[in-house]
């Protein structure tokens, strides 16, 4: 697996503040993006994990018009 996303990258991906791990986890869970928890209970994930979740939805480039994403979720940050 590749390198872990930084706190800044996770914040950009989820649209949640870098220090708001609970909101980040809620958004990742809602979009079925897997992650593991670090000792501080914040999510840790790689771009491979994000990409696999997108592919599992059945599209390599999702149609955001048909997807019900939570407010602030920035799937465009995954590309």
TrEMBL record:
It comes from the Bacteria. This is DUF4224 domain-containing protein. It comes from Microbulbifer variabilis.
């Amino acid at each position: 697996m590749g390198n872990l996303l930084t706190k800044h990258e996770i914040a950009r991906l989820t649209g949640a503040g870098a220090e708001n791990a609970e909101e980040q986890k809620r958004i990742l869970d809602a979009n079925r993006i897997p992650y593991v928890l670090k000792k501080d209970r914040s999510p840790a994930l790689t771009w491979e994990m994000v990409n696999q979740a997108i592919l599992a939805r059945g599209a390599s480039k999702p149609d955001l018009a048909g997807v019900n994403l939570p407010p602030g979720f920035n799937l465009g940050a995954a590309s």
